[in-house]
Amino acid sequence: MPFSRVPRRLGRRDDSVEVDRFGYYYLASIVTSSASTYYVIIDTGSSYTWVGAMEDNPYVPGPRSTATPQTVNTAYEDGQLHLHANTWRDCIELDGLTIDPQEIGVAREVSGFTPGIDGILGLGPTRANAGISTSDGGIIPTVVDNLYSQGSISHPVLGVYFVPTNVGGSGLLSFGSIDVTDLTSDVKYVPITQTPHISNYWGIDASFVYGNMPILGPASGILDTGAVRISLPNDAFMAYQLATGAVIDVNDINERLTITQDQYNNLQTLSIHIGDQSYDFSPNAQIYARNDPSRQIFLIIRNMGPSMEYFELGSTFFQRYYVVFNSSSSQIGFASHRYTYSTTN
């Protein structure tokens, strides 16, 4: 199925799911067959959906629940989150979209996870589940796989639209086709990167330019809504830090880069070149949201570390650009939306 045939507007079988927000994370709600509700991080950087992180909101089997012999023991890419889970089949709903059945993990033990959130909605490609297999040796189908195979959506397509933190509302996930309501440009597509390992995820090739100075690229990286910041390999991060004059705030729990008001006034555009398009981050788009303009200014750029050679585009990228993920054509599309150039931060 050529990507050009994917409908631009939501079709009869397609639907949008409202997004919630918890701090800097964007969430969806999963309702299982026991009528239990779980708030899970929307994560395009992984493909395994699981719940049960909160002891006071455990998984409750319902009339459609079936335990499987499959267990999962995995560490996530950042090395901080570790999950040990049993896999169940259950009927789940995402804001009215029904998936019956869907394999979901039920955490037996989890460490390094954000308090107050129940789990993860894995929206990465199916191949990111390699190594996490069902009892018969197959790869666990993702939420998008099952929505498509069960006839709930017309195409294996996901559109992600996040609203910046200081704006009312949170955003939408569009399953099956593209919701053009808030787009301000055409969607431009690129193929998934061929770089080993990165190609298992929603990976792309890109280069980064700060002002007129190239700081990275061409390089490969991952689109990951489960992360917050834009993360660069060490050398690129150091080049950006030097160019902006930013320093790491060692008293900040996340050790973010910080700049003065004068440095902010001199901040240049950060451009991410993907395919033949440039996706620009204005000075305002490069900083965390502030409720009070007099508050300390933190930058959204993070160091991946000296051993990592790829970049990562977290949810702050999606706050400025609409992203389309197409499983059948192995393409990713990008478009500007109404908040791309806003100054809400």
Question: What is the gist of this entry?
Answer:
Helices cover 8% and strands 40% of the residues. The N and C termini lie far apart (40 Å).
Give the key terms.
eight-stranded mixed beta sheet, seven-stranded mixed beta sheet, 345 residues, globular, single chain, mainly beta
* Class inferred from helices and paired strands: mainly beta
- Give me the strand/helix succession: EEEEEEEEEHEEEEEEHEEHEEEEEHEE
Work out the helix count. 4
Mean of the pLDDT scores?
91
Strand count: 24
State the major sheet.
Answer: 8 strands, mixed
Shape: globular
The low-pLDDT segments are 1-12
What fraction of the residues are assigned to beta strands by DSSP? 35-45%
Distance between the termini: 40 Å
Portion in helices: under 10%
**Rounded radius of gyration (Å):** 20 Å
